[in-house]
Write a structure and sequence with these properties.
Layout: H1 16-27, E1 44-49, H2 53-70, E2 73-78, H3 83-92, E3 99-102, H4 105-113, H5 122-131, H6 134-139, E4 141-142, E5 145-146, E6 149-155, E7 158-161, H7 163-169, H8 177-189, H9 202-217, H10 219-226, H11 235-248, H12 257-262, H13 266-274, E8 282-285, H14 288-297, E9 306-309, E10 321-329, H15 336-346, H16 349-358, H17 376-388, E11 393-394, H18 396-399, H19 402-405, H20 411-421, H21 426-442
Signal peptide: 1-27
Family: Belongs to the bacterial solute-binding protein 1 family.
Keywords: Signal, Transport
């Protein structure tokens, strides 16, 4: 993201014109990494992605390491949430970046089908074969050709909580979904609503659905629904929506009720739990919650910002849903060959460990040492993600066409926001999802 990707999808404030000015300024030395001697000395590699704030700052450290190794200058340009529109406009204007960090499988497929991408080099493919579980290469492959290297991953099956709230309520970490709801209601009775829900950001709602669906319906049906091989009106979807409605429809469980949740964005949901004026006990989202709690609100993951795995639903297995950002090389980039060299670097443990040390990062690379991560919580989530191997399932909305699974105010995001507002008719919501999905997959 679900966006963002896998990570918080804060919209970039700059307009396309401002982005062009930023690119010109950095290319002229404003914020570009200075070149030194090396095989790519005198070359500038432009990278576009959704990252802003601390994520952009930490990725720049990775680019700095690449520059030091090769002599290339690097420029990072924020794309905003709609990567597809941004890249399309840049290609049309003759100003395409060399590399794009793509936060959605569906968008990666779209880029490949439109002929925008170069196949990755043999060196990158070999690194992926040896260093990653096959599922990560599968998600970067379209029509048998490997286009996307998954560099940054997210563990999107973590529920974060304030231990002080749990202590005050006399509750412990739940191990089933039913126990999770009971824990939430006990929290509410003690003075804090259970969950801060970022309903303003539709991608967070898709993540709720996906964890419930994967655990309840199982991985085979999850895969089939992700490929739209079964309709969204399937009984399994209605059942998962009914379960999700138990949360959305209970004001004890949703901080501020539905209307409050719909006014809350992702950073705001973390603030409600870990900020100076706490208004909820828990926030469900990916491992990156810990980074926001630390960077924005001074919490220490593993100490006063804790998590537990999203619990199993109705006797199923506990889900492991992931997301990620894939690096791709555009054919139209002015320095695509140098961009390919960047991807060869990103495929190494060395590159991943730069960001791992900075925090707010997980790598799917099996050879990244756990000691490289900034804190014990990051080590635990990284170990869990790698250990899951091919049982990991990628964020379903990120696998869908962007019109259905990745567009603000449309498709699944909008329909689940409507469901948060009124969860009384799961079957009608399923029908709306199917109508939107059928159109998007057909187009």
């Amino acid at each position: 993201m679900r966006r963002p990707s896998a990570t918080p999808r804060r919209a970039a404030a700059a307009s396309a014109a401002a982005l062009t000015l930023a690119l010109t300024a950095t290319a002229c030395g404003g914020e570009a990494t200075p070149a030194s001697g090396g095989e790519l000395g005198g070359t500038t590699v432009t990278v576009a992605g959704v990252w802003t704030g601390s994520e952009q700052k930490n990725f720049t450290k990775v680019l700095d390491a690449f520059s030091e190794k090769t002599g290339a200058k690097t420029v990072f340009v924020p794309s905003g949430d709609n990567v597809s529109t941004f890249v399309g406009s840049k290609i049309e204007g003759g100003n395409a970046p060399d590399v794009v960090m793509v936060p959605q499988v569906g968008v990666l497929k779209q880029f490949a089908e439109q002929g925008w991408l170069l196949p990755l080099s043999e060196k990158t493919e070999q690194a992926a074969d040896s260093g990653f579980a096959p599922v990560w290469k599968d998600y970067g492959t379209v029509g048998g050709t490997y286009y996307g290297l998954y560099f940054k991953a997210a563990h999107k099956s973590t529920v974060w909580y304030d231990p002080e709230a749990f202590t005050q309520a006399g509750v412990s970490e739940p191990t089933s979904f039913e126990e999770l709801l009971r824990t939430g209601r006990t929290l509410a009775d003690s003075g804090r609503p259970a969950f801060a829900i970022a309903g303003q950001d539709g991608w967070t709602l898709t993540d709720w659905f996906e964890n419930i669906y994967l655990s309840q319906a199982g991985p085979e049906k999850y895969d089939r629904l992700a490929r739209h091989e079964i309709p969204w009106t399937d009984e399994s979807v209605v059942r998962a929506l009914t379960t999700l409605g138990e949360v959305f429809g209970d004001e004890q469980l949703v901080a501020g009720g539905a209307q409050g949740a719909l006014r809350t964005d992702f950073p705001g949901s973390v603030e409600q739990v870990f900020g100076p004026r706490p208004g909820a006990g828990m926030v469900y989202e990916g491992d990156f919650v810990g980074g926001v709690a630390r960077d924005e609100f001074g919490r220490s993951p593993g100490e006063d910002a804790l998590f537990f795995p999203f619990p199993a639903v109705d006797g199923g297995k506990a889900p492991v849903v992931s997301g990620g950002d894939a690096a791709v090389v555009l054919k139209e980039g002015k320095n695509a060959d140098a961009g390919m060299k960047l991807l060869e670097f990103l495929a190494t443990p060395e590159a991943a460990e730069v960001w791992a040390e900075a925090g707010g990062f997980l790598s799917p690379h099996k050879e990244v040492g756990l000691g490289a991560y900034a804190d014990e919580t990051a080590r635990q989530t990284a170990e869990s993600l790698v250990a899951a191997g091919d049982t990991v399932r990628f964020d379903m909305s990120d696998q869908a066409p962007a019109a259905f699974g990745g567009t603000k105010g449309a498709g699944e995001w909008k329909i689940l926001q409507d469901f948060l507002r009124d969860p009384s008719d799961p079957a009608a919501t399923a029908a709306s999802l199917e109508a939107a999905a059928a159109k998007a997959y057909k187009d």
